[in-house]
Amino acid sequence: MEQAGLVVELIIPGHTFGVDDPQRAEELTRLGVGGFCLYGGRPEEVADFTAGLQRHAPRPLLFCADYEDGLPTQCSGGTALPSNMGLGAAGSETLAFEKGVIAGAEARALGVSWVLGPVCDLATAPANPIVNVRAFSGDPGAVARLARAYLRGLHSAGALGCLKHFPGHGETLEDSHLGLPTVRLSREQFKRREMAPFAALANSADAVMTAHLLAPSLSGPELPYSLSSDVAKTLRGELGFGGLVVTDSLAMRAVAEGFEELEAAKRALSGGSDILLVPKDPRRLARELEAAVAGDPALAAAVAAAHARLAKARAACRKAPAVPSLSSVGGPEHVERAERLAEACLSWARQPAPPLPSDFSYWEPDASGPQEWLGEPFLEGLRASGRRPRPWEEGSSVETLVIGSFLNPRAYAGRIGYDSRQRARLAAALKSARSATLVSFGSPFVFGDVRARGLCAFSQNEPAQRAAARALAGLISPKGRMPVAF
Asked: 199, 194, 197, 196: which is closest to 183 by C-alpha?
């Protein structure tokens, strides 16, 4: 096949269930795209979609998804697993491996053989709006150790993984979905810290995702790193990585607002990337790239090398173990294991809290009232232990108060953390009670905003909430240790 025809396979469009027309996906499949990045859907819906397209594809499709913490990261079903930072608190490679096994097995049951994880960024900037609990730790050695175990779990289940986001997104203070962040570290600082986990895993990773950020010391002051030739120089050359290199989504504003899609794609491929992820207009991009490759021998050579690496990834998928049954997704065995994983992540902040009395007040600073509470599974767990929570009214004084915090990184949110007004409300709430406990179901950095004792669950999913309830009821003793400083 000529290189102009090969380039279409390097495009992996996005497909959002309930938003995108399945007919469009069928047309793109016939066009020859290499696969799809999936968002949303129910397990049965995703499984039907992937199986249907595979039947009509001219060659095997590679389906990927951001199932970092299991299917529920994107899909409305499956087993909810702890965040990476929760595993950083547990500090156990065995548990990180187990998370990878469950995430990989459930992904493959849906026909998704490529999990876009683990995140290998460092959790070093509390105001970073997009990393936070997605990172294992602020320590490069701990990140490498746990990410390696998670990858081994994915591989054991027959799934490919993807380290992200090279050369390191931990120090950014802006969400690249919204704009182009800048990381002003020297090349030596990048290599010593941000790149260290990627370097440690370069020989065992299937894929690496590049970051849409400005790194002047690496790629100059104007070009997003993901589009730069430093990918070939540093990731492929100095680190010796030979697997797939995939861009972050080309539809993100960090790239889309500064570059025409064709120009971004050409720069990415020429710079050392293989896969063009989620372009805005994949059909147009395929047409224009074919024409560009036909007239550019250097670009054609880059496309041929990228296609060879894609073929190796496809071959690895074909050698994978038997596909798990769809009935295993969210099944009792996985759910029970997720409950134990959640317990292992629990960590006290500053000092342990005593078991709650029978009656206590509860408040969530981001909710206007109980009808908006996110912590109902937590409260239900406490009710099951004989506790009787009641809503706290701002300004009132109470004997015992529990505050539920649900600060988590979200794409396009643009920030994480409480502003000065919210911090003042939190401080007043803590002072209103003789005994107050702050429970974080997300960012641990909230404890840097207010002086409070509390508990970190590092996830807002139901297993994490139920585990936190058992801890505050005195039924289990948290064993985790804070993986970041605040």
From this structure: 194
Cα angle: 410, vertex 415, 418; to 5 degrees: 110
The model's pTM? 0.96
Q: Which residues have CB under 8 Å from 123's CB, separation 6+?
A: 85, 88, 131, 132, 133, 135, 136, 137, 138, 170, 483, 484
Residue-range definition of the domain harbouring residue 380: 332-472
Rounded CA-CA distance 120/201 in Å is 10
Domain co-membership, 316 together with 347: no
pLDDT digits (tens, 9 = 90+) for 336-389: 999 999 999 999 998 899 999 999 999 999 999 999 999 999 999 999 999 999
What phi, psi does 390 have (nearest 5°)? -140, 150
C-alpha span between 147 and 57 (Å, rounded): 33
Non-local (6+) Cβ contacts of 96 within 8 A are 87, 136, 146, 147, 149, 150, 153
Residue labelled with tokens 């079903």:
77
Given 278, 307, 328, the domain boundary residue is 328
Distances (CA, A) of 469 to 346, 408, 441, 443: 11, 19, 11, 18
Q: Which residues are designated catalytic? A: 177, 248
Domain boundary among 328, 356, 374: 328
Among the listed residues 251, 476, 190, 208, the one whose alpha carbon sits nearest the alpha carbon of residue 352: 476
